[in-house]
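Q: Hi! First time doing this. I have a protein sequence and I read that you can turn it into a structure. Is that right? Here it is:
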Amino acid sequence: MTRAVVFAYHNVGVRSLKVLLAHGVRIELVVTHEDNPDENIWFGSVAQLCRDYDIPFITPTDPNVPDVEARIAALAPDFVFSFYYRHMLKAPILAAPSRGAFNLHGSLLPKYRGRVPVNWAVIHGETETGVSLHVMNIKPDNGAIVDQFAVPILPDDTAHDVFDKVAVAGELCLNRALPQLIAGTATLTPQDLSQGGYFGGRKMEDGRIDWQQSALQLHNLVRAVTHPYPGAFSDTPRGRLTLWRTRRIDNAPSCPDTAASVLWAASDKLWLRCADGGLLRILAADLDGTPLTSGALNAPLEF
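A: Yes, that's right. Below is the predicted 3D structure, encoded as structure tokens:
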């Protein structure tokens, strides 16, 4: 029987663990995270899955410590897998499995190596992303690729929409590749790292709107950081404006006569003209903590 130690979190972790179980892999131990009470937990629980399936699990603050490393080494697994686990694994853990350590990453490597790849892909207006199952080594996301599975990013998809697709793509990719890994027949393709870049994590402040951006750039930011993320925002004399949903349009009624970027109400709708002259319809927004409607915006806001 194939035996594995799995580092997992999030929806991708839940789905991927179920794939391993479906293929008869004996999961000796799962390492996951304690949920952060300050984080919006909108995703599935790996810990609960482990309880449901009677799989031993631990939630160390740092997995790269002697007692965790020794426990994994003593289990002598065939494989170590990482499915959306948030910490890098160091050499002692990567050396523990006899048949290799593999990670499922949420992009088409070598593009978008590093943190929050789905959000970055949406911000940059990509029309496609996906998942990559690859060899883990001590450098992030640069090991040889076992398999990839692509998904489209539609023009109005939010990061949440895309992540839902990526979670399913991860399941499909792992389900397709796992038999070859178990049989020892998988093909490993080295990455050409010159064809992609590394991206870091994002903070709430990274959602602050730069009013010199084009309508397309702003639309991409909004859909990349909308719910369940903190949103695209700007501080105004009337309070903080947060844009949650936008749609690119070609024409808008009664545009104010100003050279600035401007938000205004007309025909019972909200409209925004950006620095490049491009237009957005505002489908959902808050102002000073209250949902913004066309009736509540009694004068245009200039930026």
